[in-house]
Each structure stands twice: as structure tokens, then as C-alpha cells.
Amino acid sequence: MKTVKRFFSKRKARFLTLDTNNTRPFRLVKYVTFTSLIFVLVGTLIMSVLIMQWARSILLSKSEDYALLLAENLNHQIFLQFVVPVAIEVGKIQLSNQSQYERLDRVVRGTIHSFEVDQVIIYDMDNIISYSFHRQITGRRNMGGIGYYNARTGKSTSVLFQKGNFIELMIGLPKFSKLSTYIPLRAEKSVSNMSGPMLGILEIVQDLSQDYVAVFRFKFFIFMTSLTVMGSLSLALIYVVLRGEKIIRKRNDERLRLEAQLQHSERFAALGEMAAGVSHEIRNPLGIIRSSAQLLKKKMLKFDIDNHLPDVIIEETGRLNDIITDFLMISRPAKPNFSTCHIFDIIEKIQPF
Length: 353
What we know:
It holds the Pfam family HisKA. By secondary structure, the chain is α+β, with helices and mostly antiparallel strands. 68% of the residues lie in helices and 12% in strands.
């Protein structure tokens, strides 16, 4: 009995080992799948951020080029339509003079009336505002900042001003965004393409708030598209993984069921072999007892006819033999032997009963 228990314990341990070995490769596949998904998701988000920054840099570059082109045209118009005529008529430029200021204002507004410009400021060489769309700020000193001093060296400079809270600045949607471009205002020489002496500094302010709203919408569209694609891919991969786990689990359950059936069959086979051995060992002495009882019955008929003890022994040994036969039939059923017969013959045989 201990040997049989040890046999089935070893088989159970082997089945559990096979189940672990079969599920281990799928766990590795699942790990690789989710790791790859995370890397792809992170890579997509990084790419989206890079595209957003690229769009922002292009916006600033195009706006700066736009301001430089406008400043060149404005410089030309101011010199031809204001500086030269006033110098000829009056001999001296004084923007504190109401008529000169209004004349310069007409030239500037007439030049940029069809362009998207929020503010035009002209500084003199002492960093004093000489002209502005908002006349109340004229005369203020040291308002140019670093852009003014860079322009004094002949280098055009653009400075971006944004206002908003920390979250608005982080997501790229400030309350307002303005790009100030500082360009040297020079006198032109009609006989040469070379620029003349520097007359002042021209500041062109562009309101980029709507452009930043458009960029933010573009960034939001990219982010949502990436998120949607990655979300769909994630759901598909999760579905595949869960489906695979379900299939693996179903196959494992089926294999365990088959293994349990096999164990059951092997158990019955072992019981059958044991029953056959036990029956053989019991039937041999049982046959000797039966034969001895029959021989005893024949001899006792000469001396004591009324003694029925041998009959009892013969009857009980027969009953014990029937029990052993039934036990063998249960542990190892015999295959039925079918044959054709006449039903009337069977009825005639059982009719006396």
C-alpha cells in the first residue's frame, strides 16, 4: 500500500512540474510584450514632445523672419517718407513736435496696416522711447532691455514674453505671448546698397497668443492621437494576453483532467492486478478445501448418513468462490460476448421459474 501511495505522489509531482514548465514560456512572452508596450508608449510620448517643440521653434523662427522682413520695409519707408522730407523741410528731426510725430505715425501705420503687428516702438541712441503706438509711453528711459543693447551692436534680436501661471506655461498655453524683435534703424544711401549710420532702434512687437493657441491645439491633437493609438494597441495586446492565458489555462485544465483519468485508470489497473493475485492465492486453498469436503462426504455416507457438515463446507466454499469471482468482475470487467439467438428459446428456459 505504501508503494502504491508513493507511486501516485510521484506522478502528481511530475504533473505539477509539467504545468509550471508549460506556463513559464508564456509568462516570458507576456513580460516581453508589456515591456515592449511600455517602451513604445514612452517613445511615442517623447516623439510627440519633440514634434511639439519643433512646431514651437518653427513658429518663433517664422515670426522672427516675418518681423525682420517687415522691419526692413518699415526702415525703408521711414527713411524715404519721413527722415528725408523732414530733414529737407525743417532741417532737424524732433519727434516732440506734434506735426512731426503725427507724420511719422501716418508713415508707420500706413506701412504696417495690412500686417499683424501689435506694437511698433522706436528708441533713440540713448535708450529713450521716441515713438510708439501708445504715445503715453514716449519719453521713457531704459525700456529696451537686452534686445536694445544687442541691436546697438548691429545684431537683430528677438525676445519672447509670455505671461501665465506655472501650469499654463508648462503645457504651452500662456495667457498671452508676444515676440519683440529689435532691429537697428539705419539711414539709407541711395547710391549704394550699404546701410548708412544708425539712427535708432526699431522694436516690432507681434502678438503670438492666437498662434500659440493653434500650436497648443496641434500639440493636443498629436498627444490625443498618440494616446488613442497607444491605448488601442494596449487594449489589443491586453486582449491577446488574456486570451492566451485563458487558452493556456483551459489546456492545462484539460491536461489535468486527462491526467486524473489516467491516474484513475492506473489505480484500477493496479487494483485489478492486486485482486487477481489475491484471488489466485485464495482460490488454491479454497479448491483444496472443497475437494476435501466432497471426499469427506463420500466417506461419511457409509457411517453417518444424517451428517450434513460436508454439505455446509461445500456450500460455503462455493459461495466464497462466487464472491471472489464478483470481485474480479468489478476490478477487471470482462468484455461481453454477443451472439445471435432465438427469443422463444430463452422464454422457454425461464418459463418454469
